[in-house]
Write a structure and sequence with these properties.
alpha+beta
């Protein structure tokens, strides 16, 4: 099947993937952009899984202040190289995560940190399992996996803290 340039461009804008990856996904999906996007997300998840054991010693610390200075969050987001840490896409991801922490006040990064507290729920108390505030159909883990696939490096949330006036 021959894929037109407009379809490749549309898929690139939607997914952020490379030209050849978009072309291959469109060919595999018979020209269906939504199906091609699913193929690219699956491919990105597989790449992220392969890289998940790589060490993440670089990254950035992102701060977000909301509510006229009444709520704030700081997130440490790590990656493998300093080059990736300086990219707009990585910085944007860190900003979105800091906004998420400020808005949804998770207690832990993932459910494996819950310990014996049975009252905690992953979708509420774990950052990675919370629905993303900008797209409720995706979790924060989905967002990070998509970024891993696009960027080609392991990305980890190392730690976060949330402050709100009047809370301890």
């Amino acid at each position: 099947m021959t894929v037109n340039v407009e379809s490749i461009k549309a898929l690139r804008e939607l997914s952020g993937a490379g030209v050849m990856d978009c072309r291959t996904a469109l060919e595999d999906s018979g020209g269906d952009i939504e199906e091609a996007h699913k193929i690219l997300r699956t491919k990105g998840f597989e790449a992220a899984t392969k890289r998940s054991e790589k060490t993440t010693n670089e990254g950035i610390i992102e701060a977000y202040i909301h509510g006229g200075g009444r709520i704030g969050a700081i997130v440490e987001l790590n990656c493998e190289t300093d080059f990736v840490a300086r990219t707009d896409e990585f910085r944007s991801l860190a900003h979105d995560l800091a906004m998420q922490v400020a808005a949804m006040s998770p207690r832990y990064i993932s459910p494996d940190q819950f310990g014996d507290d049975a009252s905690l729920t992953p979708a509420q108390d774990s950052l990675l399992y919370q629905p993303f505030i900008k797209d409720q159909g995706r979790t924060i883990n989905d967002l990070i996996n998509d970024a891993r696939g696009k960027i080609g490096e392991n990305i980890q949330v190392k730690r976060f803290v949330r402050f709100a006036l009047g809370e301890e």
